[in-house]
């Protein structure tokens, strides 16, 4: 079963040909509290828990087999659902009465194929969320438990893309840490509303960014977003691993995707050709998956 890459309104370039920066040198001065970070993690875990609960209820073993998935695939997703429920319980026990409650969601999956695609995206973004948050944590216990959850999310993401989608189990030598607002932008695509009693979190969603569904490295594609910039020139940053490649976006919203990208890449529209940060973000990020085989060839 091979799934096409998807873009939800989500490169490594150690020796780039274009302007580069570390995407995680945030220029904002706000530092979230550990309680806010854990509640943000719980917000994401609630989302994953709800997604898998509805998916396992909605799709039977026969539905999975009809998509030519192995007999054990649904059982593995049931185990993933149990993991996410455990993460929710664990974070709730740490936060106590301060713990945020689940939101209302609208998930885009309509069949087992799209369920698998959304699952891969959620697990991969979860890895980026925990990776990006670790630098703000101060408690040794919190760092250790967050790292333990991150590792499970990474294993689950790798299993989905390799055992199920029959593609690459990893992207580059580094996973991609994302900032809180970048992660929330991706998560907000499926969040309808949240309880008014939840602790306010210091996050915001940027306007959604969409790439063509079958966009591939080396192609010139037209992207779409509903936002304006005060800058005369706008760019697209392609983030993966610990670096980024930044390329121009023309007046028709067309951009050439760098040919050397592979694996999961986060595309983001920015007003700077040298850095990726919240204060220069126009739209995105968008989730892109450029699968490759064991020979490093695009598939």
TrEMBL record:
Family annotation (InterPro entries): Ferritin-like_SF, Rds1
Signal peptide interval: 1-21
The reply to whether Signal figures as a keyword in the UniProt entry is yes
Keyword entries, A-Z: Signal
Q: Name one Pfam family in it.
A: Ferritin_2
Please identify the protein, giving its name as recorded: Protein rds1
* Taxonomic source organism: Paxillus involutus ATCC 200175
């Amino acid at each position: 079963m091979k799934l096409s890459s998807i873009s939800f309104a989500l490169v490594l370039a150690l020796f780039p040909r274009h302007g580069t920066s570390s995407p995680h040198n945030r220029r904002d001065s706000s530092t979230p509290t550990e309680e806010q970070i854990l509640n943000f993690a719980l917000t994401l875990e609630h989302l994953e828990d709800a997604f898998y609960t509805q998916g396992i209820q909605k799709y039977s073993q026969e539905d999975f087999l009809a998509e030519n998935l192995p007999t054990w695939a649904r059982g593995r997703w049931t185990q993933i659902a149990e993991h996410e429920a455990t993460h929710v319980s664990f974070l709730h026990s740490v936060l106590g009465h301060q713990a945020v409650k689940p939101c209302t969601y609208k998930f885009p999956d309509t069949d087992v194929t799209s369920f698998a695609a959304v699952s891969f995206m959620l697990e991969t973004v979860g890895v980026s969320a925990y990776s990006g948050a670790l630098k703000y944590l101060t408690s040794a216990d919190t760092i250790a438990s967050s790292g333990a959850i991150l590792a499970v999310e990474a294993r689950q993401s790798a299993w989905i893309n390799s055992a199920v989608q029959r593609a690459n189990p990893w992207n580059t030598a580094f996973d991609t840490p994302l900032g809180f607002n970048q992660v929330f932008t991706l998560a907000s695509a499926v969040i309808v509303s949240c309880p008014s009693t939840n602790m306010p979190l210091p996050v915001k969603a940027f306007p959604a960014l969409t790439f063509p569904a079958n966009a591939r490295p080396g192609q010139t594609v037209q992207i779409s977003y509903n936002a304006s910039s005060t800058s005369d020139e706008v760019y697209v940053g392609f983030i993966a691993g610990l670096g980024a490649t930044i390329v121009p976006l023309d007046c028709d919203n067309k951009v050439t995707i760098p040919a050397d990208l592979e694996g999961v890449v986060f595309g983001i529209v920015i007003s700077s050709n040298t850095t990726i940060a919240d204060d220069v973000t126009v739209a995105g990020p968008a989730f892109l998956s450029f699968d490759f085989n064991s020979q490093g060839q695009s598939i």
